[in-house]
């Protein structure tokens, strides 16, 4: 297994970065998409088992049934030794000060194919159910621009908007094979929600949300949107165009609180979040007990039970200070630094990160425990293209991409799968620290 990090996310950070024209070598390093491969650590692949199970709760004493909520944006995790977790969906958008540095794309829709694929395009468009008249317009070479082996086609906006979601999925899947189609390669992903619900609390006019819904299509089990250029034609001002662009950085995260009362099994709860080895027990146990003993206070944020670096990064976007080593943190840096008080920057090097997994972790099957690193592995190469950290009941801590516009968030593992495993050519393998008493810093 070698480590590299895909740039997919539930927003569009890598496309923003490809359009950024800021000067300075530091900025160039910040926005580089790095996917270094490793081929000389084949021993690590031998650690992996072929079977891949399903996430499940940790074994232990039976717990009461799962509480319910009438609010669809609030739910409770399944009962377990992790305690009573009340989970709320929140939506993050990149700060305006950052987004304003990115140039808006051209508002004229464009499809780019390789020149050598041109003879096959009529069959593709027919398969997608386009009318012959529309196909004739698309294949008119007088309306194409050919350069550097690519053919740029400019579909008329009315015809583009009339395409069905099913047809759009067929065409945009093909377009995603060609890097110039940046918004098809890395579309806006709306995970686990309808378009209306996803943008319900945004600053967008209802008319714009309706257009996003009209122009969306399915990528696996996820709603995808790629027609950003077409949508900009509906912006009524420059400020609205930038608000629209900012909305495409929208990411859904979980905000989690631990509810406790006099019936809470404090010993079991503290034992789970301290790995059964007293990790930060002196900090966690008094805090939990104080919440129980205080009238009118019934819950504490989950962040108080997590390591210090996680508390610092969660729900935030990377700052330029994190690029001082030549590249921004990715998913593997995030996962392998989970318990570190100060980040180990050598984990930015995928070769050394792979070595760290080989030396300090061992593969495990579900049910996963707190702190297990879940690697998303290619079925063909065995390479790890994403990783995240399991917290409890299928909830993970993750950073979906090495760039400025990907925040650190909490997600359901099933939602992360929709982003990274939609092609059906990968699986998850859990890894657990061999000797946590030795490998986890004592200052945590």
Question: If you had to describe this structure to a student in words, what would you say it looks like?
Answer:
The protein is an alpha+beta fold and 444 residues long. The chain folds into 2 domains: 13-69 and 318-439, no CATH class; 111-248, no CATH class. Helix content is 31%, strand content 18%. The chain is built from 19 helices and 16 strands. It has helices at 13-19, 25-31, 96-99, 121-127, 132-138, 157-162, 165-175, 182-185, 195-198, 206-214, 228-232, 238-247, 266-273, 281-293, 308-313, 331-336, 350-360, 413-420, 436-439, and strands spanning 74-76, 84-92, 111-114, 145-147, 150-153, 188-190, 217-219, 222-225, 251-259, 299-301, 361-364, 373-378, 384-392, 395-399, 408-412, 426-433. The strands form 4 sheets. The chain has a 6-stranded antiparallel β-sheet. Strands 1-2-9-10 form a 4-stranded antiparallel β-sheet. The chain has a 3-stranded antiparallel β-sheet with strand order 3-5-4, with no helix packed on it. The longest helix is centred in the middle third of the chain and has 13 residues, at 281-293.
Which properties best describe this structure?
444 residues, alpha+beta, 2 domains, 4-stranded antiparallel sheet
Task: List strands and helices in order, with pairings.
Layout lengths: L12 H7 L5 H7 L42 E3 L7 E9 L3 H4 L11 E4 L6 H7 L4 H7 L6 E3 L2 E4 L3 H6 L2 H11 L6 H4 L2 E3 L4 H4 L7 H9 L2 E3 L2 E4 L2 H5 L5 H10 L3 E9 L6 H8 L7 H13 L5 E3 L6 H6 L17 H6 L13 H11 E4 L8 E6 L5 E9 L2 E5 L8 E5 H8 L5 E8 L2 H4 L5
Antiparallel strand pairs: 1-2, 2-9, 3-5, 4-5, 6-8, 7-8, 9-10, 11-16, 12-13, 12-16, 13-14, 14-15
Helix pairs in contact: 13-14
């Amino acid at each position: 297994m070698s480590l590299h990090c895909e740039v997919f996310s539930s927003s569009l950070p890598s496309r923003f970065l490809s359009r950024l024209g800021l000067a300075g070598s530091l900025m160039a390093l910040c926005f580089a998409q790095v996917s270094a491969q490793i081929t000389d650590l084949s021993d690590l692949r031998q650690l992996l088992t072929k079977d891949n199970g399903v996430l499940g709760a940790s074994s232990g004493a039976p717990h009461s049934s799962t509480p319910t909520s009438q609010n669809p944006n609030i739910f409770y995790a399944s009962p377990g030794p992790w305690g009573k977790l009340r989970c709320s969906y929140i939506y993050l958008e990149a700060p305006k000060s950052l987004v304003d540095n990115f140039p808006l794309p051209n508002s004229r829709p464009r499809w780019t194919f390789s020149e050598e694929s041109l003879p096959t395009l009529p069959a593709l468009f027919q398969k997608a159910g386009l009318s012959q008249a529309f196909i004739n317009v698309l294949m008119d070479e007088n309306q194409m621009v050919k350069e550097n082996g690519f053919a740029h086609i400019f579909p008329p906006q009315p015809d583009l908007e009339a395409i069905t979601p099913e047809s759009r999925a067929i065409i945009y899947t093909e377009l995603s094979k060609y890097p110039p189609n940046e918004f098809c390669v890395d579309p806006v992903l709306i995970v686990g929600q309808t378009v209306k619900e996803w943008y319900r609390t945004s600053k967008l006019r209802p008319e714009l949300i309706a257009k996003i819904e009209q122009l969306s299509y399915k990528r696996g089990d996820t709603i995808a949107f790629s027609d950003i250029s077409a949508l900009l034609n509906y912006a009524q001002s420059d400020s609205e165009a930038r608000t629209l662009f900012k909305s495409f950085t929208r990411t859904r995260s979980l905000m989690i609180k631990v509810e406790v009362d006099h019936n809470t099994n404090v010993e079991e709860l503290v034992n789970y979040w301290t790995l059964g080895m007293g990790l930060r027990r002196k900090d966690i146990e008094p805090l939990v007990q104080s919440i129980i003993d205080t009238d009118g206070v019934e819950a504490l944020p989950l962040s108080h039970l997590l390591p210090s670096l996680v508390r610092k990064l969660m729900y935030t976007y990377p700052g330029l200070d994190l690029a001082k080593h030549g590249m921004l943190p990715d998913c593997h840096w995030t996962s392998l630094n989970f318990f570190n008080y100060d980040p180990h920057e050598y984990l930015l090097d995928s070769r050394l990160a792979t070595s760290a997994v080989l030396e300090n972790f061992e593969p495990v099957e579900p049910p996963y425990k707190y702190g297990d690193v879940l690697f998303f592995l290619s079925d063909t190469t065995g390479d790890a293209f994403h990783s995240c950290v399991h917290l409890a009941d299928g909830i993970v801590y993750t950073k979906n991409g090495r760039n400025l516009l990907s925040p650190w968030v909490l997600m359901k593992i099933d939602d992360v799968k929709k982003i990274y495993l939609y092609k059906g050519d990968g699986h998850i393998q859990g890894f657990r620290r061999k000797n946590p008493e030795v490998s986890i810093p004592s200052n945590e």
